[in-house]
Write a structure and sequence with these properties.
single chain, about 220 residues, alpha/beta, six-stranded parallel sheet, about 40% helix, about 15% strand
Length: about 220
């Protein structure tokens, strides 16, 4: 998804190829890449950090449950499941037109968030949902570190790589089904202190484990 035949044809000419995808390590070699290295999805220290909001910004962004990301069928079905079970979700991102006014509990913004607006939305949301993009075969994504780096509480799809990044129940929370997702949302909406502690620990993990772009780029430069 998202590549061209020219990319595949040119792979053999590169001295080194870096990827954030574990499965690419073997696949890229099959297409002629000479040296492949893994680096981590990362966050921008200047943007993805705890932020103060004005009264106007709090009015715009504050919500109990929020999701940021473009439309995809599977995540839309999960959000609709939550809506039908009484959870109001604010949804940011593009291509959600078909879901506008679909259910009273789905607040479809149908708007991309960039820069500080993105981080402020995370900071103003009690529970930040993080869905993985299936067409990319994602096991982790940039939001997986951007949300905790902002000091946001993250509830994300459970994968082995996610659980390598963050300890479940301590630094982030994960779900494996819509039923579990709903159960955890209901639980953590009532647990303000526990939610805040997990968010704090997740932010500290981002720093301690070098998930920043600065650290990852330094690693790349050292490797080359």
């Amino acid at each position: 998804h998202g590549h061209s035949r020219w990319y595949w044809a040119g792979l053999r000419f590169y001295d080194r190829v870096f990827t954030t995808k574990m499965y690419n390590l073997a696949e890229l070699k099959l297409f002629g890449a000479q040296h492949i290295d893994l680096f981590l999805d990362s966050y921008d220290e200047k943007i993805h950090k705890p932020m103060s909001l004005t009264a106007v910004e709090r009015e715009r962004f504050t919500c109990d449950v929020g999701a940021i990301g473009a439309y995809e069928d599977e995540r839309a079905q999960s959000l609709l499941y939550l809506a039908k079970h009484g959870i109001k979700v604010h949804v940011w991102g593009g291509n959600w037109e078909k879901m506008v006014n679909f259910h009273a509990n789905l607040i479809i913004k149908n708007e991309f968030l960039f820069g500080e607006d993105y981080s402020k939305a995370i900071c103003a949301t009690k529970i930040n949902l993080n869905f993985l993009r299936k067409i990319n075969r994602d096991e982790v994504t940039s939001r997986s570190v951007e949300i905790p780096a902002c000091g946001g509480f993250m509830l994300s799809e459970r994968t082995a790589r996610h659980m390598n990044f963050f300890e479940e129940g301590k630094e982030a929370e994960f779900f494996g089904s819509n039923v579990e997702l709903l159960k955890k949302i209901r639980y953590f909406l009532e647990k303000n202190e526990e939610r805040a502690e997990i968010a704090r620990a997740g932010m500290e993990k981002c720093v301690a484990s070098g998930y920043s772009m600065r650290t990852q780029l330094t690693t790349i430069l050292d490797t080359t």
